[in-house]
Amino acid sequence: MEIQQLIKKIDDLFKKVQQLEIRRVYQQMIIPDAIKMRHMGEGNRFVRSGLETNLPSSPELGTDSSAFYFATDTNKLYIHNGTAWVSTTLS
After folding, report:
1. Are residues 82 and 61 in contact, defined by beta-carbon separation less than 8 angstroms?
2. 20 to 30 Å CA-CA from 59: which of 5, 11, 40, 91?
3. What average pLDDT does this structure show over 39-58?
4. How many Å separate Cα 27 from the centre of its chain?
């Protein structure tokens, strides 16, 4: 392997390591139900998506938290009002 190729590989690895150090974790990267809402703190807004038949019967809500669910098969957005799911169809 030539010196220039080796330097390029080292530079590429260095950039990847830097990206890992500043990489953010987004909600879609977390396995569903791996972290309970009570561990996330108050005032959180959780949006999940999937088929309408997979709409959770009752989301686990903390104080000042909201739950949203987007049914990808029917284009309905569900918002849990604390006692039931309320929905609207999006175009």
Report:
1. yes
2. 91
3. 73
4. 2
